[in-house]
């Protein structure tokens, strides 16, 4: 069986763009993309057309399609996004109390931990329950 995730990942293979998440309801498919160099409108348009082609071929059910890039100010959702934002200032929130901690710079990620610099101190933070948001500066 062909899955939406498989179709999207095959389409994006070899590019710097990756799937963040998708949500399918009875009448709509919403696909969210991010990339190591951002996501341009052309990539979203091409993927939308590719998904429509899959519907036309009967590989996906007939539903409305929305392909979008990850929103600024949203919490990062996977390790690829963390990797794409290494070196940037971030704010943290934990599931325990929901408070926001500032003055961190994202240093890296492995399968279980995000590594963050606070001043000169490198601190490992378990990914489970950790929410990271890129700090937007104007």
Describe the structure.
This protein has helices at 4-12, 41-56, 79-84; strands at residues 17-24, 28-35, 64-69, 89-94, 100-109, 113-118, 121-126, 130-134. It has 138 residues and is an alpha+beta fold. It has 2 domains: 4-69, GMP Synthetase, Chain A, domain 3; 79-134, Roll (SH3 type barrels), CATH 2.30.30.100. Strands 7-6-5-4-8 form a 5-stranded antiparallel beta sheet. Strands 1-2-3 form a 3-stranded mixed beta sheet. The longest helix has 16 residues, at 41-56. The radius of gyration is 17 Å and the shape is elongated. The model has no long low-confidence stretch (mean pLDDT 91).
List the helices and strands and how they pair.
Elements: H1 4-12, E1 17-24, E2 28-35, H2 41-56, E3 64-69, H3 79-84, E4 89-94, E5 100-109, E6 113-118, E7 121-126, E8 130-134
Parallel strand pairs: 2-3
Antiparallel strand pairs: 1-2, 4-5, 4-8, 5-6, 6-7
